[in-house]
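ok so i was messing around last nite and threw this chain in just to see what happens. nothing serious, just curious
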Amino acid sequence: MSTSLPVVNEPATGGCTDAPVLRERGQREVFCGLTGIVWLHRKMQDAFFLVVGSRTCAHLLQSAAGVMIFAEPRFATAILQDRDLAGMADCNAELDRVVAELLARRPEITTLFRVGACPSEVIKLDLHTAAQRLDRENFPRVRVLSYSGSGIETTFTQGEDQCLKAMVPHLPAATDGQRRLMVVGTLADVIEDQFSRLFSQLGIGPVSYFPARRASDLPPVGPGTQLLLAQPFVGETVRALQARGATLLQAPYPLGADGTTRWLAAAAAAWDVPAEHFRRVTEPAQTRAATALQRYRGALEGKRIFFFPDSQLELPLARFLSRECGMQLVEVGTPYLDRLLTESELALLPAGTMLSEGQDVEKQLARCEAQHPDLTVCGLGLANPLEARGLRTKWSIELVFSPIQGYDQAGDLAELFVRPLDRSARLTV
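result:
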């Protein structure tokens, strides 16, 4: 029986693999990496995130997370005071006291992340060494790790990358040489369940997810581990896993029907899944996704869209919107163009797409206004000013918080882009 996989809508052109990229290094408009705590603490139910920062850090998390007043969150901020910043107090002794009180109060915590912010990095607090000491004192009851969520040189989704990278040294070694699949990047539980069913039906396994629903459930990694990426902002984590012997499967990200099919096909090829079996398993879901997308394609087809760099989801979203929804790409900006993680996406973009990396916000605003696209994807800080200038916007952070991966979410993903256009049409007099 043939093990070749079916062709899944190969691009008619050579894509943007070798396309020129406008690289800008100026003023940026982004959130910091602390924002990743919002979805990480929801995913890892036994983890706690202790930010070492300022009142601004605390306000950011409280407003971004939207925690109900009756719920006790699994994140907090140890606020640095003037004496701490001036070097007049022993910050490490005070943080040790806070950690001891926290662990005594919350015995269900199995993993504690001490998260650095801009203030703690400016005064050179060595949270990594302190975390190693606390880990020796508290393990195995509690594992204590640290990572940087500072926004000085990062964009907001890199907080997840730093968190997962901090966990990689503690993953157990897979020394049996068994072939196993690791899906890397945070997924909503409902989407994880959907993918698990598909992998099981395809005969692919064992499958682990990183991060898992419990931070203490660390998946093994070794020479037999195949990596399939669910998020495009985990570059440092991937490189750390490769250093431990894992192999990266090149694939687009599972956004839309075509993207999800290609993503699954990469794993199926590694597992020698017969083409007919792959088609039989995925065809019903592909049909559901195509039907859901058809409902929204009419509203998006031919519309022009401009991406400001913010989340690193820009390339997969642009591919989805152009190939499956018929939108025209005016400019696709991304904070960092990591070709290791985006090779397959670049190949599927329309030839001639304007690509930009980094940001000089004034110059990019000028280009956007000159082009006057039908829809602009941007961060919260730019949305209101752009709306005031007559441009319709979609918040990029909403696309990170929302469950958008997989077949059953393809229609929901398209609808997220229809909403601002529909709202504008309803408000037009």
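not much to say yet. The radius of gyration is 22 Å.
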